[in-house]
Amino acid sequence: MKNILFLSILFTTFYITAQEPTYDAVRKNEIVSNKLENSKETLNKPYVIMVSLDGFRFDYAKRYNAKNILNMAKNGSSATRLIPSFPSKTFPNHYSIATGLYPEHHGIISNSFYNKETGTRYSIGNREAVQNGDWYGGIPLWNLAQLQGMCSASYYWVGSEADVNGMHPKYYYPYNKQTPYEYRIKRVLEWLQLPENVRPHIITLYFSLIDTNGHKYGPNSEETKQAVQYVDKQIGVLRNGLKKLNLPVYLVVTSDHGMDEVSHLINIHDYVNVNNQQFFAGPVAMIYTKDEAETDSLFNKLTQQTNFKTYKRAHVPNYLNYNDNPKIGDLVLITDPPNTIINSQSDKTELKQLEGTHGYDPFENKNMGAIFYIEGPDIKKDYKLSPIENVNIYPLIAHLLQLTINEPIDGKFDAMSSVIKE
Length: 422
Hints:
Layout: H1 2-19, H2 23-27, E1 31-32, E2 47-53, H3 60-63, H4 67-75, E3 77-79, E4 82-83, H5 90-99, H6 103-106, E5 112-115, E6 120-123, H7 127-130, H8 141-147, E7 152-155, E8 171-172, H9 181-191, E9 202-207, H10 209-217, H11 222-245, E10 249-254, E11 260-261, E12 264-267, E13 279-280, E14 284-287, H12 292-302, E15 309-312, E16 331-334, E17 339-342, H13 345-351, E18 356-357, E19 372-375, E20 383-385, E21 388-389, H14 393-400
Parallel strand pairs: 2-9, 2-10, 3-20, 4-21, 7-8, 7-9, 12-17
Antiparallel strand pairs: 1-8, 3-19, 5-6, 10-19, 11-18, 13-14, 14-16, 15-16
Helix pairs in contact: 9-11, 10-11
């Protein structure tokens, strides 16, 4: 059986590779958004490469023997578990890492949501919305750097395609899931070999494979193990490339959330009637109502069942930091694994294909835990942080790049400062 699986993976890899565009063709998609050059004051400052491994659960490295990432823990510092912001979904958490803000403060409150004030919807599959900077609050790291005379680059990250604060990273790519990971690594290393006046000091990089396999096959599957080991190999290539450059580089490897098994579907229509336009499904579901009377009516019906907890927006528990933004649904429904909430038979058919999901309360569900590894010139070796919230990454990176944070954020530098050598 193992031989059959290996041959299947080998054939699939060969087939996909045969269909891939050349590196030169992919590179032409890069956008150079501005003429910014590094100021004289920034030329001697260090560099930070921040890599996100979407869906990399806190225990995957040891469990699936991710050798390069485990070596980062010995050569640098790491967290026993990185606690995602709520809800533990991809877009909110990538943007929380990038801004140091909870979703209720930066505005990307879920992968899909509704703005009642404007009558518009945000969805990760809607390219126009994803690229519209009006949805995004805060000052992402690439903008923080550029506002202080430092070039930045992004090979994918939530928000990097949008004109946030009227800016993009100096170098960035429109998202294309099919771009080979080897190409992405190659381009990051090339960016670091540009002339120092236009060389980016902060670079973000994103890989989705582990999340994709975690959803399709589950966190305990052979396919997820293979994805972890493949992506870990790419981290090894990146680390080896960085060593050859002789630059003061900090490498951060992190993730947005973990993954848990899902096997039971709760249909909201078993309790109330809502239409698709006002309902957003998932482990954390939301209902948008037309008025307070409808909110009260639905709330009274939903609180009579025990399969999930129902809150009016203002009463979502404070520890979740999810009750202070009008884009959050009027009603927030929170369930636990192995449950997820759906809103139609068609959803039920689709979800039968999924073995894993995320979005659950990260403080109650350990399996939502993500990763944080860092190595570089002034980072302690073989040092371990206790579980820590992901909003604290932002002030740490700002400190390493010697950038000043002028706007309020939720993250605290002191929460992670112990990773720095005294």
